[in-house]
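Appendix B, record 7
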Amino acid sequence: MKCLENGIVPHVIPPDGIDTYELETSFEEAVCTPEEIASTQPETIAKCLRAGVKPDAYSGVIDSIEVVQKRYRVYDEPADQDGSAKRSDAEMLDHAAEGYFVRDPEKDFVYCPAGSKLFRKAIKTNGYIRYANKTACKRCPHRDRCFSTTLKQDWREIDFGKDCLEKPNNRWLKNDSSHHYQTRPNVPQRRAHYEPKTIVRIIFRPKRHLMDKRKCTSEHPFGTIKRALNAGYYLLRGVVKTTGETALFCFAHNLTRSLNLLGFQRLLAAVSGHSSLVFVGFAVLRSKFLGYIHFFDFTLGLYCFPASA
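Structure tokens (predicted):
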């Protein structure tokens, strides 16, 4: 939807058996003049779409656009149960020792029944936050009370929702004879109600011939990088390192394309104004990713280091 509001037609491949997408955006009442409907400016296009008017620029890709009423489920804010959201660290540790996983929403970690801290590992697609601590679980003397040691996984993972502050460790509570175990703890139910909201519903139909053209144009470089340059996986970890590694892959691909389109002599003339170290860097990257051994295949001594260096 953001692409349409910015004047970009996203020809995205729909799932099998589906030719259209149903998009929704918030309704903003406005009067659109014929000049604004015929305009191609992103601000004017966004104004028309939010007002429920189809711009002329999207006459071939938007089948229908209408203003409708839709009911949305709105959850009420949960009440503070016994001040659980304002407990101190000592109180949370004491409650966790009874056999519960207690979450601290401010510091974003979870106390386990053994007294260790479980830190955020990932956010799942359903919005739940997963906490784990592999090192603490592997060294914990109470592992048999927390989870089965026969499993291949040697640590415990626990998922918490946005408003959930504690969860019982069922295996721990079963093994604790001094605690009255409950199969289903008394968890307060979240209250919700429905509110009507005015929205703009858009039926968007992407063009399949443009999608086929995009596949032939944009997918080819990625296939060449993964197959011809043998760059189907990363050697490093982390966003910063893998971003740099991807930049090197793309640079090697662009250099290969330049050689094929321009030829060696024209490429050499194009980079002749740059420093020798930059050109040597080009040659080193070319030899690294393309597997060439003799990458100093020229006689200009300006770009070559002496053998004694």
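Remarks on this record: Residues 239-262 form the longest helix (24 residues). Residues 180-185, 287-309 have pLDDT under 50 and may be disordered.
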